[in-house]
Write a structure and sequence with these properties.
single chain; two-stranded antiparallel sheet
């Protein structure tokens, strides 16, 4: 996602897989909370609702009981990893 940026270089860093038209549009995103979203080689506008600091704190407090610890996140991440590859063994085919 790319919100309005101040220079074309920043747009290229965020939206690297997109064409120059998308990069130029990132300079002039029309509304606060509007962003450019990249999906493969296409882009679309999307909007997010602005929340004040007090509103963000209230949402965080409301769902604090659902937060995971770093240890839980690392364990979940490790569980999602594919198994380590088995090292290849040389096999002689001449006998």
């Amino acid at each position: 996602m790319c919100a309005r940026v101040n220079d074309i270089e920043t747009a290229r860093m965020v939206l690297s897989a997109l064409d120059d038209d998308a990069h130029r549009r990132a300079l002039t995103v029309p509304r606060p909370g509007q962003v450019i979203v990249q999906t493969d080689a296409e882009w679309h506008y999307a909007r997010a609702t602005y929340l004040s600091s007090a509103e963000r704190r209230a949402v965080a407090a409301r769902y604090a009981d659902k937060a995971l610890s770093w240890q839980q996140l690392l364990a979940a991440d490790a569980a999602a990893l594919p198994p380590a590859p088995v090292p290849a063994q040389a096999v002689r085919l001449d006998h």
